[in-house]
Write a sequence for this structure.
């Protein structure tokens, strides 16, 4: 069965992974089908800490949802044989099942070779010869029929594909060769099925449900090739387009975890302690312990219920997560800047804003010069017009905004303050989504009009 990936944004944070795991379970409770909770990139230490503490397995890391060979495979299983089968049995099997190509596998389902009906015909013709010695034919025929498949299967010059290969390359290779079928294997050479040119016309996109984002720039690679079934989010409406109408739940609350938790509660679905703890973690980190201006009464209400269900003391647990993740001394500058970086697009301008939440702004300030230098390098490499790093002090309730890049002067206009040493201090600013991104978009909009 083809899975539906429930997946959050690139540079996964606690909220998007909590929402993906909880929404996957919600979908499985309410629908038939296979749902997989996924992360659009490697997990950071904070996420590992939370998942580990609550005893969750890490979600599958999916770096692209572009169409691959795997998506050409049909649901039905391919008849396969092992190398010990004799040609007599194989002939019977092929006739009975009307097979033209039969893969040969070992006992671990690994692919060994292939036999086609053409190969079989050649073996008979070669062995029976030109018919001059017709009296010897029964003996020869018996010998052929006794032959084991392993000794005659084709093992060389086969064209086989790995399941993750991109479709374009496969299409080229299929059109340049004339085989009827092509075996597909995984990275360990396990046989997955046969594909043919016909399957190219019938390819099925990967199916995804997006949580905690709805902008193309933040979505997993290959999203333009995938079929988006649903979006559950709490950010500005971005630029993703869908072919058909979809279920799009967007609400200005503090976290996507809030929305998923609400679904469970409204539908009176049982929630494990563990899951309640995970959703609470997503809610607490995204709202910065309810201090972010994105926090709503609904977040407070749902958090109270999750606290009860999980048995965790919300604020203590939240502080523990932040204390863990603000041990920023252990990260390189690049890691620190990129772990929660989000890219945005306005017209043709690409910019990025990342955020570090800390309870210890001083240790951050010590590294400032190096961090700015690294930000400048990142801007060049990624062709960002500018980038900002919000170092948000949760206790002081303010953000030091570091800026770099050619157009960093826009930050002065946006926040009405002078940039001194690549830095602006923004008292009371805690939310990227609510207090920083809209202001930057507004300045860019004016800039485009000039
Ligand atoms: Mn979120």
């Amino acid at each position: 069965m083809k899975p539906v990936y429930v997946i959050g944004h690139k540079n996964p944070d606690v909220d998007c992974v909590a929402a993906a795991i909880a929404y996957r379970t919600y979908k499985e409770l309410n629908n038939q089908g296979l749902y997989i909770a996924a992360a659009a990139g490697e997990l950071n230490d904070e996420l590992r800490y939370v998942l580990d503490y609550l005893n969750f397995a890490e979600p599958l890391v999916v770096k692209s949802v572009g169409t691959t060979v795997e998506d050409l495979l049909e649901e039905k299983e391919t008849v396969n044989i092992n190398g010990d089968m004799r040609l007599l049995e194989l002939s019977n099997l092929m006739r009975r099942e009307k097979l033209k190509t039969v893969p040969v596998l070992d006992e671990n389902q690994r692919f060994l070779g292939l036999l086609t009906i053409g190969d079989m015909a050649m073996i008979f013709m070669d062995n029976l010869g030109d018919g001059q010695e017709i009296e010897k034919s029964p003996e020869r025929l018996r010998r052929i029929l006794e032959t084991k498949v392993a000794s005659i299967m084709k093992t060389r010059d086969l064209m086989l594909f790995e399941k993750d290969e991109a479709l374009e390359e496969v299409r080229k290779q299929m059109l340049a060769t004339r085989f009827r079928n092509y075996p597909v294997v995984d990275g360990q050479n396990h046989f997955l099925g046969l594909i043919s040119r016909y399957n190219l016309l019938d390819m099925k996109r990967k199916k995804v449900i997006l949580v905690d984002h709805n902008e193309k720039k933040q979505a997993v690679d290959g999203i333009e090739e995938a079929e988006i079934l649903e979006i559950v989010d709490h950010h500005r409406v971005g630029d993703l387009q869908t072919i058909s109408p979809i279920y799009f739940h967007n609400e200005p609350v503090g976290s996507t975890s809030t929305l998923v938790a609400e679904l469970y509660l409204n539908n009176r679905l049982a929630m494990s302690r563990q899951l309640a703890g995970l959703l609470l973690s997503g809610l607490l980190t995204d709202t910065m312990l309810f201090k972010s201006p994105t926090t709503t009464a609904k977040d407070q209400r749902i958090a109270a219920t999750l606290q009860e269900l999980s048995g965790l003391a919300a604020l203590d647990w939240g502080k523990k997560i932040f204390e863990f993740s603000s041990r920023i001394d252990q990260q390189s500058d690049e890691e620190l800047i990129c772990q929660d970086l989000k890219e945005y697009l306005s017209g043709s301008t690409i910019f990025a804003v990342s955020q570090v939440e800390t309870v210890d702004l001083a240790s951050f300030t010590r590294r400032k010069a190096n961090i700015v230098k690294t930000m400048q390098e990142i801007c060049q490499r990624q062709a960002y017009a500018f980038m900002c790093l919000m170092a948000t002090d949760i206790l002081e309730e303010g953000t030091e905004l570091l800026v770099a890049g050619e157009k960093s002067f826009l930050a002065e206009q946006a926040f009405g303050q002078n940039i001194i040493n690549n830095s602006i201090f923004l008292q009371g600013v805690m939310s990227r989504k609510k207090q920083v991104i809209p202001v930057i978009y507004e300045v860019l909009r004016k800039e485009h009009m000039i």
Remarks:
- The chain has a mean pLDDT of 92.
- DSSP finds 17 helices and 16 strands in the chain.
- The pocket of manganese (II) ion is lined by residues 15-16, 212, 234, 255-256, 286 (CB under 6 Å).
- Residues 4-66+206-325 form a domain with the inorganic pyrophosphatase (n-terminal core) fold (CATH 3.90.1640.10).
